[in-house]
Amino acid sequence: MTGRSAQLVIFENTYGATDAVHGFSAATPFLLPACGKLDFHTYHTAPLVGGAWRLLGETAKWMPVSAARVQAIDHSGTNTLTVEIRGVPAEVVTLQLLAEASGRIHTQTCTLPESGRVAVVADITAGTSCQTLE
After folding, report:
1. Which domain range does residue 73 map to?
2. Sheet order of strands, 80-86 included
3. 3 confidence band (pLDDT: 50, 70, 90)
4. Residue 53 to residues 69, 97, 104, Cα–Cα distance (Å)
5. At residue 5, what are phi and psi to the nearest 5 degrees?
6. 72-105 CB burial, b ≥16 within 10 A, e <16
7. Residue 73: strand pairing partners
8. How many domains does the chain have?
9. Residues 38-91 pLDDT 10s
């Protein structure tokens, strides 16, 4: 099940980049598998943003979306999502976003410019890209 049929999606990032999401709701709960101290799993949820995209974030990190990294989210375009991210110059940042209509996960890697700021732009028809911010 993808996010297309659920209010929220859940994804696992225990082992790095996410390759699958699962929809869930009160009517269709996501059942967590049993685990122990050495085989635990980490799950995160992603709400629908602006009707077209879900921001999964830096899925290789324990906290894939943080206020320190994500400075702004703009979903004013019908099929577009823009995520402003901040870090140190020359840092490589990889974001994952889920296109709601297709259920496809898009992965965008950006190298931060001297300003340390970049916008990841996700568009339903054009895909994803990095735009340098001053």
Report:
1. 3-132
2. 70-74, 80-86, 117-123, 127-132
3. very low
4. 19, 7, 10
5. -115, 15
6. eeebeeebbbbbbbbbeeeeebebbbbbbeebeb
7. 83
8. 1
9. 877 788 888 888 889 999 999 888 889 999 999 999 998 889 999 999 999 999
Whole-number pLDDT of residue 71: 97
Q: Is the dihedral of CA 16, 22, 27, 31 positive or negative?
A: negative
**Alpha-carbon separation of residue 38 from 10, 41, 44 (angstroms):** 22, 9, 19
In contact, 22 and 1? CB cutoff 8 Å: yes
| 128, amino acid identity | T
- Of 102, 100, 120, 101, nearest to 110 by C-alpha is 120
Measured in residues, the chain has a length of 134
Partnered with residue 92 across adjacent β-strands are 111
Give the model confidence (pLDDT) of 12-46 as tens digits: 766 665 667 888 888 888 888 888 888 777 888 88
